[in-house]
Design goal:
Length: about 500
């Protein structure tokens, strides 16, 4: 079922006295940023219900009309759980629900991402503090924005003076817009982020479809030119452990289920309409359209870490992550502790740094990548500062995380609480949880039949559990892909 609202449709109606539009005056209607600001645009909004929906899967189908706006939203709501207070993971928000997503045209898959919730954990690092605090905390539930934390005294209790709490800022922590209370007592400076206990309505946020499918960052789908059905499929993460995070006082209830409220799931689809004669002329000129975009492929490897008190040092691990015959622009990796789920602030959507404690020799990651029979770096990289630089180089911007969060160095994270969790904790907090590795392939070459080989030494993987634990190394390959729309039929291939 769908419900539709529309703005003034006058621009869609061909007037008998309208001036014909010349071929040279038609802008590129499907390329984001190519449309002149003075172009007449009408927007029609449909509220689409899923054609199939369970707690593990849902599918939406668009109508073949207009041009799909890339910032259309999917609304998701979780049912309440009266047993415990819980909140969506601070790093990924409601994206924790989505384990896999796929955009299909007919039987062809245009874009898909496996372990999407881990992928978006990396991408979310590049959202500014202002964007996370003022927008994403309300729209998607992501809220890793930072602020200076003024002198809190000892531990998590304020014992200083008012002057100290307003002048001396030795640490940083999360910022959700609340003011610091210097009245004394327990310092929980970020209380009550979207809890579910006694919340009659449930937790509801929205996911942008361009975050799901990188194809839509640069292109918009001309649905009016397509003859095949266009669908979005979402595969959801398990109801227990992987969707929410428990407040520290309720961590003993780990494993509680948070089912999706299937009655609330909907896709808010915005269809753009330009003057009718412009759209007709564009379709006539572009019976054979080509789209170039990035798509991602995932490779996974399990690593076993020693029990508590014996930090694991793994000799060189070589993993072939694929990519043979493809054009690959970069790869990025994350090492996740599989045992850290709903008892933490980030759930399982993190990338751990190595053990680092004052008075002990620091752990480190030694990394390199080999493709086309050559190593990317002439000397293996074992310096966290250089690895951070590689992240900046690979993404083209600086991630909005602290040194403590990236490499477990500096000791700048506050011990102040977030829903009872100590933010500076290296397992359930934020310290050492954003240690992503990025490799920008710089030779503009097609990968040969051997594929890409990732070389890693993990020196001192920290595990606080009393038993050995498994860690998962995820590697995402960014591949160049091409889609063509010819006579209403979409085809796709790797470049």
């Amino acid at each position: 079922m769908s419900y539709s609202t529309s703005s003034d449709q006058s621009a869609m109606t061909t007037q008998s006295n309208a001036t014909p539009i010349s071929a040279t005056s038609v802008p590129d209607l499907v390329r984001i940023g190519q449309i002149p600001t003075n172009t007449a645009i009408d927007i029609e909004t449909d509220i689409l219900d899923p054609v199939v929906h369970t707690d593990t899967f849902c599918r939406f189908q668009f109508q073949n009309k207009g041009i799909l706006h890339s910032n259309s939203k999917i609304v998701l709501r979780l049912k309440t759980n009266a047993t415990a207070d819980a909140f969506v993971p601070a790093g990924v928000g409601i994206h924790s629900l989505i384990e896999r997503c796929a955009l299909r045209v007919g039987t062809k898959t245009i874009s898909e991402i496996d372990d999407f919730n881990h992928y978006i954990g990396y991408k979310s690092m590049f959202l500014s503090n202002e964007h996370q605090k003022q927008r994403e905390s309300f729209v998607s539930g992501r809220r890793v924005a930072h602020k200076p934390y003024y002198d809190e005294g000892t531990g998590t209790s304020f014992t200083g003076t008012l002057a100290e709490v307003t002048v001396n800022a030795p640490t940083v922590g999360l910022d959700n817009g609340t003011s610091l209370d210097a009245s004394g007592g327990s310092l929980d400076l970020n209380a009550d982020p979207h809890v579910t206990n006694n919340d009659e309505y449930g937790v509801e946020f929205a996911v942008s479809i361009q975050d799901l499918f990188p194809f839509l960052y640069q292109n918009q789908l001309p649905l009016f030119m397509m003859t095949e059905p266009v669908t979005i499929e979402l595969f959801f993460s398990p109801a227990s452990k992987n969707r929410m995070c428990l407040s520290a006082g309720d961590a003993g209830d780990s494993g509680l289920a948070f089912p999706i409220d299937t009655s609330a799931t909907e896709l808010v689809a915005d269809y753009q309409y330009f003057p009718q004669e412009m759209m007709q002329e564009y379709a006539r000129q572009n019976s054979n359209l080509s789209f170039t975009y990035m798509d991602y492929r995932l490779a996974k490897r399990t690593i076993v870490a020693n029990a508590s008190g014996a930090e694991s040092t793994h000799p060189q691990i070589i993993v072939n992550v694929g990519g043979a015959g493809r054009l690959c622009t970069k790869t990025f990796t994350c090492l996740s502790n599989d045992s850290i789920t709903d008892v933490s602030m980030l759930n399982n959507y993190h990338s751990i740094a190595m053990f680092n404690k004052a008075g002990t020799s620091p752990g480190k990651i030694v990394s390199n990548l080999k493709y086309n029979d050559h190593f990317l770096y002439p000397v293996d990289v074992d310096n966290s500062a250089q690895q951070f630089h590689n992240v900046v180089q690979g993404e083209g911007m600086v991630p909005f995380v602290t040194r403590d969060e990236y490499s477990n160095q500096g000791g700048t994270m506050t011990p102040a609480l977030y829903e009872g969790h100590i933010q500076s904790d290296t397992h359930t907090g934020l310290s050492a949880q954003f240690g992503y590795q990025v490799y920008k392939l710089n030779r503009n070459e097609r990968i040969n039949s051997r594929g890409i080989e990732l070389y890693n030494i993990f020196d001192k993987i920290e595990n606080k559990k009393a038993t050995t634990q498994s860690f998962t190394l995820r590697t995402y390959l960014e591949l160049i892909r091409v889609a063509t729309l010819k006579d209403g039929v979409m085809e796709t291939m790797f470049a």
